[in-house]
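Appendix C reproduces, verbatim, an entry submitted by the partner laboratory led by Prof. M.T., so that reviewers can inspect both the input and the predicted structure.
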Amino acid sequence: PRPASVHALREERTATWREINLKYGTDTPVTRPYLTLWHDHGPAPSGAGYFYLQLPTASAGRTRLLSAAPPVELIADSTAVHAVRRGSDGLLAANFWRAGTARELSCDGPASVLVRPKGRNVSVALSDPTHLRSTVVVE
């Protein structure tokens, strides 16, 4: 990760569960505190990008440590696929928005894929976030 500016907004929001779930929601207003973080991309970014780690509950010191020596390597960052590899065990995690390749991993369309090498074996976890595909081809 490279240093970047992040904006933060802390606010209370009020809404009903029915606004997001017509079948199971209620009309009772609920107010909760929210924290919104965002990176300002500018009015018309082109060829820009960023890479960040989510570190829930990490202290400031742990965050500095992981920023200086990230536990993952960014191996693909394109409009088709974003992927990282964890150095400690070789886990490869990729999100494909369309057909693409992340080093040795290819997929024929939208999917989230985890590949974990374990000795001579490999375990694969796959999800179709679109819920529209009947098959997904991974190589």
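The mean pLDDT is 92. Additional entries are available on request from the coordinating office.
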